[in-house]
Sequence to fold (444 residues):
Amino acid sequence: MKDRSILWTRRYDWSCEYFNAPTRTHRMQLKTILNRVQKHKSFVYGNVRWRRREGRLSLSVSVRPRKNSRPVCSECGRRGPQYDRLAPRRFEFVPLWGLAVYFVYRMRRVDCRQCGVKVERVPWGNGRCRLTTTYRWFLASWAKRMSWQEVADVFHTSWQSVFRSVRQAVIWGVVHRKWGRIKAIGIDEISWRKGHKYLTLVYQIDAGRKRLLFVARERTEESLRSFFGIVPRRVVSGIRFVCSDLWKPYLKVIAEHAGQAIHVLDRFHVMSRFSKALDEVRAEEARRLKKEGYEPVLKHSRWCLLKRPENLTEKQTVKLAELVKYNLRSVRAYLLKEDFQRFWEYVSPGWAVRFLDEWCTRTMRSQLEPLQRVARMLRAHRTLILNWFRARGTISAGVVEGFNNKAKLTTKKAYGFRTFPAIEIALYHQLADLPEPKFTHSFW
Ligand SMILES: [Zn+2]
Fold:
């Protein structure tokens, strides 16, 4: 009896799902709600009417100016005498109970002493947009959790409307954000679209505050210079650590603008060099084995060798165990890379250096050319890598990698956007931790 489905055991009372035209009490309730969540000093809510639009039921709430109130000029913000009124316009509000809600209002024109005859300014939106400000913030906040197209589908609106809502949220946020004190920044690049298009991303990576600060096209000197162009001087002079790869254009601009900061070659960028080297060894070996007629043991092994052991799937673990049986160059390269992970665990820089030197010596004897290149790079930039230990405590560990993954996910999820402005806005929206205005009521 107990494991019977509730669908078939419980008797559902369909009579509760009645549908009626709104009575006077219904109207009163909606007005009460609106006055609670979205009250305007100089305007009042009037009648509420059912409307059917494109097969969907919606509510239209008429709005009218409070008696004797004078319209505000949209140009200068001063009140002036009413000139005339325009035809009714609809502004879409946040849906209630799944019903679209519209404010219907006849905009007044102001006879402004300064600007002439102008359309008035209304508190729930701007003159050009048919969505209310509250609804745009509502859509923008959902766009952090779902793709823009999904938001558009769920709320029966267009991709364009969602995009515009996110854009206004980002613009507001960027204008109102506070720089504060920034001790550490991370500079990273991600590839975007096919055909080697890059974006330069600058993050704040302090242990206490992590956020995206800036997005620029390409990965040139100009990309990074434009970042230093917008940050106030006092903020730049407070930067103590800069994490980045050894990308020449970046290094040059960092030296120019933040010469006081200590450059750190961070874990993420060092380890991505390893991944590249490993890929080379594996690809070269796979080619050789195939040529010599061996069975293709290295097929589908790429991820076994690139992932950390704890991140492998069960199938990949079996594959790795199988690979280790062969004394392959790829496997030796893999073991050298995994061994190097220990470097980051050291507490004392002294011991870390000893390990680094010992590891480089071993690798130089390994006859694995791509890894030898990594070893040479590590030797040449010993100080920069050891700066990682000096920065510990200030920089939040693993943060550059975390941001890199999130940024890639954002660009991947962004099917709709083909243009730089759209991807730029999506990245700020997801990663910049931008402020939002305070509302009397939060809908999310
Ligand atoms: Zn004016």
Q: What stands out?
A: The pocket of zinc ion is lined by residues 73, 75-76, 78, 112, 114-115, 118 (CB under 6 Å).
